[in-house]
């Protein structure tokens, strides 16, 4: 695959979604209790195969066979952290991409320490909101509204670039415009709807979708991340045309992602290079 600089984003995003549907990558998710259901359904509707495997005893046999790993620290406990670290280490050892969602990273010293230790295990992609990415980049505990962001994505561009350079990961900051950077290139994905903020686990679910996209093209994690974010946003835009509120948007989001076609992707994807 050519880099995105030589291709239009719409055809590239459609190509990656088509590969997810054709290959049905196995995405292992070590995630929080709130997000498991929606995350699994988003992966299934996109064509991927979810596995909510988090038992430390199963990891040596399971993780090496997954095509990608997604780690989400939303309902973090000291009992789950060893499994997260072990899975990340196994993924790296076996050359499998893994994606980190540092939920509320700056909310407590325990959570921040856990997230920084996971970053040290070389994730392929880190996806968070502005406050989470800024907390990780600065390694500081600050005011946090749970999983909600006190900063918009544009506030975190420099922090994202810094974190990308120090971690070696592609960093995505979700917001009204999603920012994607590898520390050198910066892209913005402007798809989505504000009502997604009223549905729990949509951020968690788009992180899992990123893992599925990176699974089918791990050498182009920057392009795969931007494409996944945009496709998810397009599905939300299509879903809201039928929705009456957050609950029905959740249903129509899943349906729209399942049924999204080439024409919709080519006409709706809004990704631009910012640098």
UniProtKB/TrEMBL annotation:
Which domain of life, per UniProt? Answer: Eukaryota
| Record keyword Lipoprotein present | no
The EC number(s) given in the record are 2.7.1.50
Q: In which pathway does it act?
A: Cofactor biosynthesis; thiamine diphosphate biosynthesis; 4-methyl-5-(2-phosphoethyl)-thiazole from 5-(2-hydroxyethyl)-4-methylthiazole: step 1/1
Pfam families associated with the record: HK
For this protein, the parts annotated as crossing the membrane are none
Which coenzymes or cofactors are required?
Mg(2+)
Q: Name one GO biological process term.
A: thiamine salvage
Q: Which UniProt keywords apply?
A: ATP-binding, Kinase, Magnesium, Metal-binding, Nucleotide-binding, Thiamine biosynthesis, Transferase
- The name this protein carries in UniProt is Hydroxyethylthiazole kinase
Organism lineage string: Eukaryota, Viridiplantae, Streptophyta, Embryophyta, Tracheophyta
